[in-house]
């Protein structure tokens, strides 16, 4: 299975950073894709790569082996041209000791997901040197707003970020501040927020609330800050206005969820 590791400019250290991995496998006329956030430890031959969250998977049926081969070749070529490097060896799941559950701590927070819209296209248009500069400024702006509103950065995924907040209003205000700040760099982001309980073990976060937050962000359009109904209900007295974006089926999440756009 060909595997690729996303190279991000914020990953100046050689070990202990987070990134994104992408894998492809062909079985007859079927293409199996897998991608998600990873944590990288070590360098060179001693480098170890672990999934930080369960990877997303997708199956594509191409009807013929020839079409499947063409799809795989084109997909691999795109990754090689878009800031990915070939990755040798396996991407491991972290082993859990039998008593690991005892180490899990429950947390309740507002969960924020940020993602740059059409980042691959922008990187290709600007070139590596300029894109590196833009991404440095991007992460500096994001972290500045997180610090101002007491957000906690959990993990970065190439050009995305997961953070948590003790109060939903702080998360929403941070989201709009990040959106406005990165527009000066010529970037548009999509943001999703959800509030709920999840488990923490070391640097890992686990739970349905995390997945709901990611799915809410995936529904956002360029420049939109979307929140789940849970977040909206918690902010009834905040003075922040919302516009109903209807009920949505979130991939892998039970039932339909009503989403709301943050309005200025």
Describe this structure in words.
With 264 residues, this protein is of the alpha+beta class. Helices cover 30% and strands 39% of the residues. It has six helices and 15 strands. Strands 8, 9, 10, 11, 12, 13, 14 and 15 form an eight-stranded mixed sheet that branches. Strands 1, 2, 3, 4, 5, 6 and 7 form a seven-stranded mixed sheet that branches. Helix 2 (119-126) packs across helix 3 and helix 3 packs antiparallel against helix 4 (168-183). The protein is globular and about 55 Å long. The model is unreliable at 9-16 (pLDDT under 50).
Count of DSSP strands: 15
Q: How large is the count of helical segments? A: 6
Number of domains: 2
Distance between the termini: 47 Å
CATH architecture of the largest domain: 2-Layer Sandwich
The CATH superfamily of the largest domain is Nucleotide cyclase, GGDEF domain
Radius of gyration: 19 Å
The largest β sheet comes out as: 8 strands, mixed
Q: Fill in the CATH topology of the largest domain.
A: Alpha-Beta Plaits
